[in-house]
Amino acid sequence: MDYTARKRHTTIIDTNGRENDYPHDIQMYNVPPVGEMSLEEFQELGFDRLKALRLVETTNCRSDLKTLEDRKKALCDSLKSDGLKYYANLLYADGSNPQSEEHLQTRKKDHISHFILRLVYCHDIEQSKWFINQEVEFFKLRFSSLEKKGIEYLLNISNLDCLPISQNEKLEMKEELSLSSGKVTNIDIVDIYKVPFEKVIDLVRGRKIYLKAGMAYVTHMDLSSVFICYFRENLIAGLENAKMLYDNISDDERLTRYLTGLPSAFSGMARVVWSTTTTPIDKLHDLSKTSYPLCMRTLHEALCTNSHLRNSGRMQYGLFLKGIGVTLEDALHFWRDAFSKKTDGSAFDKKYAYSIRHYYGKEGRQTNYTPYGCQKIISSSVGPGEYHGCPFRHMDRDSLCQKLTSYGVFASNMTEILDFAKDAQYHLACAKYFEVIHNKPASKPLLHPNAYFAESRAISTEDDSNGKDFDNKDKFSQNAIGTPGGLSSRKSDRYSTPSRNSDFTGTPKRNNKFSTPSRNIDTIDTPLRKVQKTNYTPSKKTKMTPVNIAEMLNDDDFTDFMDVDLMDQKS
Amino acid sequence: MGDVSDLLDLLPVYYSRLFPFADYHRWLSYGNAATFSKREFSFTLSDDIYIRYQSFHDQKGLSDEIKRLLPHKIDIGAVYNAQPKDQRRGPNFQPVERELVFDIDMTDYDEVRTCCKGADICNKCWKFMSLACKILDSALRLDFGYKHILWVFSGRRGIHCWVCDSAARTLSGQVRAAVAEYLQVIGGGEFMKKKVHLTGDKIHHSIKRALDIIDPIFVEMCVKEQNMLGTEEGIEKFLPILPNEEDKQEMKALFNKESTSEARWHAFVQYIESKRTEGDRKWYLYRHLIEEVKLQYSYPRLDINVSKGLNHLLKSPFCVHPKTGKICIPFNANVVDKFDPDKVPTIMTLIEEINAYDVRDKAEEETYELNKKRIKDYKKTSLNKSLHVFQEFLRHLEAERREERLKGKLSVDSMEF
Ligand code: SF4
Ligand SMILES: [Zn+2]
């Protein structure tokens, strides 16, 4: 990619053959843009796309929108009201391929802005993940607007290993196809394509497709999966390349300042909320009843009763504790105590202490792990003997009902919570649980267990200070930070005005425009910059000193132990 | 097996005379010396020392080090983009290749087996392993098209599966996760009593195939031998799987009329079948229930985290299990039913066998003074059979490589003309 930013506007040199550059409404972004543009335009494009992606995120978090069409409509409305009409157009483009000048300009903006954000988001694992997720979601919505012709055309111009099968071939496997192709009722009238199974992992994962000898047989309705999969992979690889490109432009300070500052221009609700103060571990037991979300309360309880938690549970709970300000020393104490009935101190030190230190970035790759958000918890897989996950998603109705009853939730609220859970409205179920426990609803939607905790503490401290001045008011005050390197909550308010309303539609107003990047960078707190710094430095200590662990001969725990090292590899 | 000190006495003999270094090296090279040299090995030594990121240029490097360190356990990791042993592994050091592996452990069956618990196994519960092996093996071959699959006894209470096709070795983490999830039918933690949910009206062909394997033995194995409904406890575990309260009550009453696990199972099947056909308003809830229950009680239970990552370590074949002394031997999936975990050779028996042979040999030599050809040591022992399985697996890999090379050569030739 050749971004030459000029102070003054420079015209794009290449004005010919743009239809060939942008043959379709949907782009796979295989080739980086070439040409020159003004810094202002560059900044504006990046800013617009970021806003659009934020809107994609918030729309996706709205559990009142049941179908994809609903979500698309809502997204379209908010794009328009935020002055991003051209994104609204992209969203509904059907691939019929009109060649107007306006269309081409829109496609071009789509192209360039995507690549700008690649530069912004390529450095930090957490941030890349966010970016990939939003881009993929946006892609999905856009793809769903395509007409059949548009899809076929896209298939033609993209270089995918995806071929239609002959009528004969189809007849031969008709039986299996109709068993295994998901919702299809009449296999005779659908077109079937064959593609290596690696290209449709979404369908493979869900067992929604017929597989034979490594080939997947995709109906034309499921072709979107092929494209989504390709898009995602391409993007992952693209972010790797972007890192290198970034180095080429890193001597242009105006650009780098803009690029590093951009992610913090808004803060999302689904972000980790880090506690600014420490939480003492002797309070955890009480806090688990008053201020933990149900997922963490369940884990805490399982830990107490079993004196053990399997790796995924330890990870979910351990990172949560890190987020609410339990120090590493305290965490080691806490876990050692909790395990003590089954595991003596020295065995604990050998078997588990490593992984606890690992959560705090003190071992192994020294990755700075962030506490899991609801989305990750909700989508985690939970196996026999495990207690992690989101209770509203991973408990069956009976177990959930029992659990809630034992926590004093009355029948009147019970059905509401259970029904939300049944309808996959986990956040609403969680919000209701919050309301029941606190006798008042949360002031904002909570999409992160640590945000739940922060909100709960805010309410209790308020109550406390209204009553007897029992607790130090600041003790649990929270500081909202985006993924490492965001703005503090106060600052983010400036940009994300309506996001506190529960209607989820908030995004920055157009006029709040992020005008000079330098200004933004100045407002970032210094300690946070440090966080960001440490994340950027690939800190990979070569670890040749043998690790001393006992009982490593026990396969199960050995597996646990190794898992930790892998976590940052998984998406 | 006594204690660790026994093992320390025996390991030198095992590693110098029995461990099949040549075949092992042949396997992990995959026809390319560089591949071998970038492979991570990790060793667990006697005093709880655990060393990661070992790598070796060649067979001799590996065998010398193993003979020197006498590891209690050897784990095989990924092939990296640089030699893991190299101290200068940079920030770009990362795994690039790895067999697709599966780990099935008996402890994950504790909620469905009644004969043993935890680390114990017996011939009854071993049947779960043999089912798992058959189901996975056929899915990997038929659905995914893999051919080079090595099954290995894990030394105590489980089995490992190594898929070694080159297409499998280069899969990304994401694709591995998808394959693992495709094969993972059992889901849900402690708070989810019903652990199999078949969506849709029809049953996926892969599940159907699994059911075809399960069906003929289900009653014998799960209902009778494991006595799944024979006890109060078994019934208590079973009832929460049912979709609603009335069913639970009705089923409980029906169960009380019967006294054996088998009779109760038939009562259940009958009850559900009547629900399916009687035009029950809620027939939808019952459409796959019998199949789902069968799967919950017998389908392979995988630890899919092991399969997802490229750099997950897995215990090596031919390792000695440090607690049982059993050798992690490869076995043939086609005759898995005949595999008896109790008869797996241990390091103790193997060494006795060699010693006995040596004594006989010596006696013979003295008597006849024959200048006999030296026989490979493992051939003198019960390890021989497993070695055959392993060598056959290697032959297939090599035959395919030859074929590929030939094809590659042919296409080059045809280009020249
Ligand atoms: S919705 Fe989020 S916070 Fe609430 S229980 Fe589920 S995972 Fe925890
Ligand atoms: Zn048993």
UniProtKB/TrEMBL annotation, chain A:
Residue span(s) of domain DNA primase large subunit C-terminal: 287-453
Q: Please, which domain of life does this record's source organism belong to?
A: Eukaryota
A Pfam family this protein belongs to?
DNA_primase_lrg_N
Q: Which UniProt keywords apply?
A: 4Fe-4S, DNA replication, DNA-binding, Iron, Iron-sulfur, Metal-binding, Primosome
UniProt keyword annotation of Iron-sulfur present: yes
- Residues involved in [4Fe-4S] cluster binding: 295, 374, 390, 430
Gene Ontology CC: alpha DNA polymerase:primase complex
Keyword Metal-binding assigned to the entry: answer is yes
- GO biological process assignments: DNA replication initiation; DNA replication, synthesis of primer
**InterPro entries reported in the protein's UniProt record:** DNA_primase_C, DNA_primase_lsu_euk, DNA_primase_lsu_euk/arc
- Give the GO molecular function terms: 4 iron, 4 sulfur cluster binding; DNA binding; metal ion binding
Listed Polar residues bias regions: 495-522
Region Disordered: start-end pairs: 462-522
Q: Enumerate composition-biased segments (Basic and acidic residues).
A: 465-476
Look up the record and name the cofactor or cofactors this protein needs.
[4Fe-4S] cluster
The entry's free-text remark on the cofactor is: Binds 1 [4Fe-4S] cluster.
Family per record: Belongs to the eukaryotic-type primase large subunit family.
- What functional role does this protein have? DNA primase is the polymerase that synthesizes small RNA primers for the Okazaki fragments made during discontinuous DNA replication.
What protein am I looking at? DNA primase large subunit
TrEMBL record, chain B:
Q: Which Pfam families match?
A: DNA_primase_S (PF01896)
Q: Which top-level enzyme class is recorded in the Swiss-Prot or TrEMBL entry?
A: transferase
Q: What EC number(s) does the entry state?
A: 2.7.7.-
Give the protein's cofactors.
Mg(2+); Mn(2+)
Q: Name one GO molecular function term.
A: DNA-directed RNA polymerase activity
Q: Which GO terms describe its cellular component?
A: alpha DNA polymerase:primase complex
Sorted UniProt keywords:
DNA replication, DNA-directed RNA polymerase, Metal-binding, Nucleotidyltransferase, Primosome, Transcription, Transferase, Zinc
Q: Name one GO biological process term.
A: DNA replication, synthesis of primer
- Which family does the entry's similarity section mention? Belongs to the eukaryotic-type primase small subunit family.
Its protein name is DNA primase
Q: Which organism is it from?
A: Camponotus floridanus
